[in-house]
Amino acid sequence: MFIQGEWDTEMAEKLDAKKKQLIMQAAYAVGGSLMFALGVNLIIIPLGLYNGGFMGIAQLMRTFVVSVLHVPVPSGVDLSGILYFIINIPLFYMGLKVLGKEFAIKTFITVGIQSVFLVVVPIPAVPLIEDYLTACIIGGIIAGTGTGLVLRGRSSGGGQDIIGLCCSKKYPNISVGKINILMNIFVYAICLFLFNIEIVIYSLIYTTVLAMAIDRVHIQNINTSVMIFTKKMGISRAIIEQTGRGVTNWDGEGAYTNKTSYILFVMISKYEVGQIKQIVHSIDPNAFMIFTEGCHVDGNFEKRL
């Protein structure tokens, strides 16, 4: 009975932790999507600038629909959000097949939330910030921080992120960053053909600031190596089962006590540091850990959102 009670308590704690994690991820997705929409609609669109990637494609489609086809659109409403959701539909299917059901569902919900915010956040008739360079910096920081929060919540804003993750899973030499660059080149080449070069230059500045802000917030980009020193067994198995990361272990001996210790080595992203600490301390509260950030990894290491 005592063992059963302990097991029930442990399961309840795990479920509670999972529930808190899901709530936090949802908060990141909603808050990040709102920040992105605020940065784009309030600062970038009033100046006639364009995002890169699939959002930029949606904005170009909006320009075609409104300016060429002359489809009437209510004042202050942007069609980009609706168009962005539509062009993401085939990508949801791709993500479902390659990256799994959980990722596809999270991305579908996040893109839906983002699209709603892009539609409902009003676009000012007069730019709030008239200086282009200042607007690019401020808009890039706000939108980039929002995108970074979405990614930090282990979701995705869709578009080229899905393509990049699917490609990198099959072809390790192809990264999400490379796909982003190719998509941006495509979008801004069209902008260069349709608009004046100033629009393209300032859009590139905005996109660069946005990318820098994403990297500051999206801590999954930071590789972290972990060395764990413990006298208890079972930690390596728990890490493998709960994180899906590989673990290398070997036997050691304390120089002062001459007692046997287990030394574990695992490579993770910075996002997973808290999870590793929780796993290790739940088995051995006295375990000693060393975390080293910014490691370069060459080989079979899975990049995650």
Description:
With 305 residues, this protein is an alpha+beta fold. The protein folds into two domains: 9-219, no CATH class; 222-293, Alpha-Beta Plaits, CATH 3.30.70.120. 63% of the residues lie in helices and 10% in strands. The chain has a four-stranded antiparallel β-sheet, with helices on one face. A hairpin with a 6-residue loop joins strand 2 (247-253) and strand 3 (260-269). Helix 1 runs parallel beside helix 4, helix 2 (53-68) packs antiparallel against helix 3 (80-99) and helix 7 (176-194) packs antiparallel against helix 8 (197-217). The longest helix is centred in the first third of the chain and has 43 residues, at 2-44. The chain is elongated. The mean pLDDT is 83.
Summarize the structure.
The protein folds into 2 domains: 9-219, no CATH class; 222-293, Alpha-Beta Plaits (2-Layer Sandwich). 63% of the residues lie in helices and 10% in strands. It contains 10 helices and 4 strands; from the N terminus they run ααααααααβαββαβ.
What's the topology here?
Layout: H1 2-44, H2 53-68, H3 80-99, H4 101-120, H5 132-152, H6 160-170, H7 176-194, H8 197-217, E1 223-230, H9 235-243, E2 247-253, E3 260-269, H10 273-283, E4 288-293
Antiparallel strand pairs: 1-3, 1-4, 2-3
Helix pairs in contact: 1-4, 1-5, 2-3, 2-7, 3-4, 3-6, 5-8, 6-7, 7-8, 9-10
